Protein: Winged helix-turn-helix domain-containing protein
Organism: Bacteroides gallinaceum
Amino acid sequence: MDKVSIGMNAGIVWRVVRNHGPLVGYKELKKASGLSDRDLNAAIGWLARENKIEFATNPDDDSDLFFVELNVYF
């Protein structure tokens, strides 16, 4: 694993989250991205550091949810 592959995986995760809908669960994100836990977690960290992904907790089962927060400036 290196910065280039983490960045590429971050792009995969970004597209899945952006195109999927308002909230994506971890298991769903893993399946849709095809990434291993290690690669997925590194990509999520990359996106979190860049403020491109946000986190929420599912109140039904306390699982992690991910979503894209759009910043629009006028």
